[in-house]
Amino acid sequence: MARYTGAACRLCRREGIKLFLKGQRCLTDKCAIDNRNFVPGEHGKSHFRRRQLLGYGQQLREKQKVKRMYGILENQFRRYFRKAEAARGVTGEILLQLLERRLDNITFRLGFATSRPQARQFVLHGHILVNGKRINIPSYQVQKGDEIAILQKSRKNPLILSAVESVAGKGIPEWLNLDRENLSGQVLELPSRDSITVPVEESLIVELYSK
Predict the structure, then answer these.
(1) Which of 21, 119, 128, 207 is such that its CA lies 20 to 30 A from the CA of 109?
(2) 109, part of any domain
(3) Strand partners, 134
């Protein structure tokens, strides 16, 4: 299964914002954005001042930011866009909704992992149940009413326990419900644009693919 395996902090520096790819580290003084907020590469520091992007450059950066935030590559992102474009409604909003409904993102949103990459790993290793059935596909699309839980025998896994404890108290989106005691959650409704808090101008992505 294709995925990015390079340095996560490099992606944040390229986009100039925190993508929260390394969990709790992003909230400490070790975060690269706090210490080295310039583009990576040999001449990154000497060209510290970021150029103002317009047109295609701005659209491209917005697309790259979303891809990197959700941990998906170009071909898969194009498939999401085509699916959103074919659906009824506002294309950009539907695109974000499809990304939010990914099982790895739901696992992260419920606080079962400190980052989306870690949530993806938990799903791949079979630690996550959907309606009582083990699902190991990070891109699995959850539906309204689905129940997501941590596998019973995985609830003693030190890595999972540490992740759950470290993000305890983190806000949960209003379209999800969390039962922290039983390490389970439910999709109350599909996310609306107002409830998706990622800093994205999805209209720029639509403009990019509409050319």
Answers:
(1) 207
(2) yes
(3) 129
Bridge-partner residues for 177, per DSSP?
Answer: 186
Per-residue pLDDT for 48 more than 50?
A: no
Q: H-helix or E-strand containing 185?
A: strand 184-187
Domain with 140 in it: 102-190
> By C-alpha distance, which of 73, 56, 62 is closest to 14?
62
Q: Are 57 and 120 in the same domain?
A: no
Kindly state the tokens that stand for 100: 């939010």
Select from 14, 15, 13 the least CA-distant residue to 200: 15
Q: Residues 33-40: contacts with CB within 8 Å, 24+ apart?
A: 37/13, 38/13, 39/13, 39/14, 40/10, 40/13, 40/14
Do 211 and 73 form a contact (C-beta atoms < 8 A)?
no
Q: Which residues of 124-136 are buried (b: 16+ CB within 10 A; e: fewer)?
A: eeebbbbeeeebe
Closest CA to 58 of 24, 96, 23, 16: 16
Domain match, 74 and 151 both? no
| CATH classification of the domain holding 107 | 3.10.290.10
The per-residue pLDDT for 4 is 54
163/119 Cα distance (integer angstroms): 10
DSSP at 102: B
